[in-house]
Write a structure and sequence with these properties.
The protein is α/β, with parallel strands linked by helices and 366 residues long. It is 26% helix and 29% strand.
């Protein structure tokens, strides 16, 4: 709990500082036209004054940003080859000493004030903007919606990756807002993407999706992004997720089934009570088709009316117990999706059972 609170405090303070600096800079400065050089091979003449993240987006170069450029996720890192001044206080919580030494900066915090040269992974040039039409919206739990977006163009991605959803302003929200969501559909479905979106209190995008989004609406999507995908090894797989963390794991498992992957896989899914569980029948169907796949749901606080006969306890305790019963295995990999606190606790459990940290992959969200 302390880890989660600390992360939220740091993110909140960074977001406020970012907003203050942005407003002050916009009121005082006008930078005219400047040049951005990318990977020493591409040059763009742009209007100065905006963040590097938004300026690159204007040139159809999309840098990953789960928070939509609010300075609270730390994903939009680029290597800056020019002298653009010291690291800002809003960047410090997200940069390691090595990253600071290597001139890594948060593109949502760096202002384009003069000519600048940067380096980014070449694959980011393949990120595209898609126009979509909402074709279905289903409630899978009391606070999670399954939404399918038909795309006007085909998308190609790895199971486990995410897209960024852009929603329009509404109420007191001025302008568009962008947030990241993992795809729950498998890569073979190229004409659209399915997302699982949990309602977050006061969440701008989740509130829009749950309260205002309708079938037939047009929505813009950016992607694909992310390094959370199944590695091609023979190791046993330990999946751990909860809530909307189901999304990337579902995509990976469906992709495994389609491709005939026969690796041993254990999927531990944690929920508080039965109303927070979903896709139980779907997972049973997958188990019937994949003999080496095992789905283990667990409730941490089941209600009397749940009549629950499955595993009870925190998902970390359930995983700990299962791995202890299995004993030492020659090779295992962990794939985790959930909150920072949940991810950190799961990493500790997996390491306790001799799973190397370099073999633990995760998709961490707030």
């Amino acid at each position: 709990m302390e880890i989660i609170i600390s992360a939220l405090v740091v993110g909140g303070i960074s977001a406020v500082l970012a907003a203050v600096l942005t407003i002050a800079d916009a009121l005082v400065n006008n930078y005219g036209e400047v040049n951005i050089t990318v990977n020493e091979s591409k040059s763009y003449k742009v209007k100065g004054g905006s963040t590097l993240l938004s300026t690159l987006a204007g040139e159809k170069i999309f840098i990953p940003s789960a928070c939509g450029g609010k300075g609270s996720c730390g994903l939009c890192k680029v290597k800056v080859l020019s002298d653009i001044g010291p690291v800002l206080p809003t960047e410090l919580p997200y940069l390691s000493p090595k990253e600071k030494k290597d001139n890594i900066r948060l593109s949502c915090q760096v202002k384009v004030k003069s000519d600048v040269s940067i380096e980014i992974p070449e694959e980011l040039f393949n990120i595209r903007e898609y126009l979509s039409t909402v074709s279905s919206i289903e409630n899978v739990t009391h606070d999670i919606k399954e939404v399918f977006f038909d795309l006007e163009e085909e998308i190609r991605f790895k199971a486990g990756q995410y897209v960024q959803l852009i929603v329009p302003g509404y109420g007191d929200i001025k302008g568009e807002t962008m947030r990241a969501y993992s795809m729950s559909s498998q890569p073979s479905v190229r004409n659209g993407v399915e997302l699982l979106i949990r309602l977050v209190p006061n969440g701008i995008v989740t509130t829009y999706v749950h309260k205002m989004l309708r079938v037939g609406d047009k929505i813009r999507i950016l992607g694909p992004f992310g390094e959370f995908f199944l590695r091609e090894t023979d190791s046993d797989i330990i999946f751990i997720a909860g809530g909307s963390g189901m999304a990337p794991i579902k995509s990976i498992v469906l992709d495994m089934m389609e491709k005939g992957v026969e690796r041993n896989a254990y999927y531990f899914f944690g929920a508080r009570s039965k109303k927070d569980l979903f896709y139980l029948e779907k997972m049973k169907e997958i188990e019937s088709k994949m003999p080496n796949f095992h789905f283990i749901p667990a409730l941490s606080d089941p209600l009397p009316e749940d009549d629950w006969e499955g595993e009870v306890g925190l998902i970390t305790d359930v995983v700990d117990s299962y791995l202890a019963e299995q004993g030492e295995k020659p090779s295992r990999e962990g794939y985790l999706c959930g909150s920072p606190g949940m991810i950190n606790a799961c990493i500790s459990v997996l390491k306790k059972h001799s799973i190397l940290e370099e073999n633990i992959y995760y998709d961490k969200f707030g």
